[in-house]
Amino acid sequence: MKLSTKGRYAMIALADLAENGPR
Q1: What is the reported pTM?
Q2: For residues 20 and 12, is the Cβ–Cβ distance under 8 A?
């Protein structure tokens, strides 16, 4: 499955938020 640039960026942003958000 190939993601578009926006989709990839959104995924990275979500992962980053998941790690940094709760703290």
Answers
A1: 0.47
A2: no
